[in-house]
Every structure is written in C-alpha cells, then in structure tokens.
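Please check these two lines:
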Amino acid sequence: MKKMELAPLGFMVALLVLALNAKASPKVKFHLSSADLHWIAERISFNETADKVENLTFWNPKESFPSFGIGHFIWLPKGVDVPFEETFPKMVRFVSQKNPPPDWLVELNPMQPPWSNREAFIREQNSSKMQMLRHWLLQTKDEQAAFILQRFQQTLNESIANLSLTDQWKVKETIELMSAHKVSAYALLDYFNFKGLGNNSKERYKGQGWGLLDVLLAMPSVTKQTRLEAFVTTAKTLLKDRANNAPTEKQRAIEQKWLTGWNHRLDAYLKLAKEHAIE
C-alpha cells in the first residue's frame, strides 16, 4: 500500500496564514496631511463655535454639562448621567502630549468641572482660569482635530469588529473612498463629531440609529464621483427618520426644528465639494 506524502511544514503554515487572513477583520485607518488636518480643524471649529473665542468654553442652557474646544467636547459634572460619551478629559490627555494645558486643569483631582452648575460657570467666564483655558484651546485646534481623527478610527475599528465580514469590508471600502479627498474626509469626521458613531444603544429610536456607522451601512455602493452625494442623501434620510421616530410629540416637534440645521450642515459638505473641485 502506497503511503500518502505529507506536505512540507512551511507550505501548511502558509496555507493556514492565508486562511486566517481571509477571515481577518479589516482595519480602518487613513492619513491626513498637516495642511488637510488644519483645514478640517478650522471647518469643525466654525461649525461648533461660529469662530467665536468665547464659544470655546460653552454651556448650553438646555444641557446639564459644559462643552469645550473646537469639537464642543463634553465635560460631565459630578452626578450628571447622560447617554453621551464624556470626551473633554480624553481630549486634554491626548493634546497634552504635545501642548500642556493650564496648570489649574492639570491639578484637578478628580478631573471634574469646578463649577457646580451653569450659573457658576457663567460667572467665571471672564476669570483668569477661563481665559487661560480658551487661549490653550485656541492654540491647539489642529491637535484637537487629530484627537477627533484618532477617536474616530479607534471607536470605528472596535465597532465594525462586531459586524459581518461583508459589512466590515463595505465600511472600510467606503471610508477609503471618502478619505481620499479632504472635503469628504472632513464630512466623515464632522458628522462623527456631531452625531456620533452610532454604537450607543441609547441613541436609537424604534431600533434605528443615525450615527456615522448607520449612514455608512445604509449607503449604496459608491464611486469617487458619487461618494459624497450618497453620504449626504443617506444621512438626511436617517436624520429625517430620527425626527419622525422621536418618542413623544414634544420631542418630535423639537427634532423637526433641529432637522433644518442638520440638513444645512450636510448641504455645506456638497457646497465645499464644488468650491474645492472634488472629483
């Protein structure tokens, strides 16, 4: 009886590596030049602060927490529980690697807002501490944009690992097309910053989300020519559904008003594309 020959060990290892790679989750990562990152930082800053220095330290009267910087990063006072991710302390740690913040901020332990409520915050708006903070935030716009990019890539890669391989590759390929030009890359990061990724189960109405990942998964197949228009159209549809699906009549009325501003922000992406001759 003829013995079956065994394949060389190296060949078997190579086959195993190929098999594993075929099933591996794709990683989303893209690089922005310093010039493009600066341009995106300025655009996000305009959207969130209207280029007003005083809006770098802001407490909306309808919210239970203050927001800071070009991305209006949330800083939660003690005892405040909201379905949003606290991002200001994370941003401070990230930017501090290149540009140290004011000493008073570093010395906070624990790192919680030193104002007990909005009234106390407003009283301190012109204090030396607040002026130092706004100066630091004004000088670190590019680093804050880099934080948004780093957080975007980290949270997106963590979330898509839970998707089917088909959906993972769809998201990766769409992002590669979107990130190839600064305007569509800006659209990705700006939408992520103001509407989130969509990985928070509390940010859904009737089981439907409106975050960046929801938009990417709902988009049709795109090309370089159709990527941004498809992104905007899909985002508008999901945000309209959000407004219609709000749990109460009062909330629906509020979100219908917000929808106008959201659509204006999305339309601005297409306007920028024309101004910068995106192909």
